[in-house]
Amino acid sequence: MDALTRRKWDRAAGAFDFINGLGAERRWEPVKREFFSTMHGRVLFVAVGTGLDIRYFPPAVQIDGIDISDKMLERARPRAEAYAGPMTLRHLDVHDLDYPAGTFDQVFTSCTFCSVPDPVRALEAVRRVLKPAGELRMFEHTGSRYFPFNALLNLMNPIARLTGPEINRDTVGNVRRAGFRLVEVRHAYLDVVKTIHAVAPA
Ligand SMILES: C[S@@+](CC[C@H](N)C(=O)[O-])C[C@H]1O[C@@H](n2cnc3c(N)ncnc32)[C@H](O)[C@@H]1O
Predict the structure, then answer these.
(1) CATH architecture of the region 3-199
(2) What is the pLDDT of residues 122-133, one digit of tens each?
(3) Does the CB atom of residue 174 touch ligand 1 within 6 A?
């Protein structure tokens, strides 16, 4: 397990709900409700954080939630216990997924692939645990193709990454590089906040 990343997110756990409760959660609620409504079968949720998204999960889905930070997971535990279906939480680095190949029907992520240190390797690990033609569904913020947003995000990135995520990543490109087929990319805010739907090879 990557100790640096773990420590960074352990440190962020205490203030995470307060900072995200300032507006981000309310702002993205309609997008997230629709995004998570497609959950079915056995689902891996990568980087559950403090579990803020659990409220949007439809009932009765079998969900395995993982995160590299046990401080985040401590906060997520009561929310997972309140979920109306079978949900387990594990302290696990996405780069080291140890589930047998082809375990999951779907993998969901939410503001995660801005944070994992080696996104393409982590996405390859995700691809391995998906069933053939299994779905990858991501709600992510990324870099922008447009000026001045690209310049601003590049400028602010060295500071952002010290305490939290990278804000200028090419996550759509990373999904392709990891061997997925893109089905749909929908922009929720400019070309920065988006949902990505991709499938593993059949
Ligand atoms: C920006 S937070 C998002 C949390 C949650 N998905 C949400 O939207 O509320 C990023 C999360 O990714 C987790 N994370 C970062 N690197 C990880 C890794 N390599 N494996 C698993 N989780 C990781 C962090 O611990 C943190 O909980």
Answers:
(1) 3-Layer(aba) Sandwich (3.40)
(2) 999 999 999 999
(3) no
- For the Cβ of 53 lying below 6 angstroms from any atom of ligand 1, the answer is yes
Determine the pLDDT at residue 143.
87
pLDDT at 22 over 70: no
Pairwise CA distance, residues 49 & 64, whole Å: 13
pLDDT of residue 156: 87
Residues 186/199/112/77 CA torsion (nearest 10 deg): 110
Q: How far apart are CA 122 and CA 73, in angstroms?
A: 20
Calculate how far, in angstroms, residue 49's C-alpha sits from the geometric centre of ligand 1: 5
Ligand 1 mean position, distance from CA 90 (Å): 13
Q: 124 or 155, which is more confident?
A: 124
Q: Is 174 left (phi over 0), alpha (psi -120 to 50) or beta?
A: alpha
Domains of the chain, residue spans:
3-199
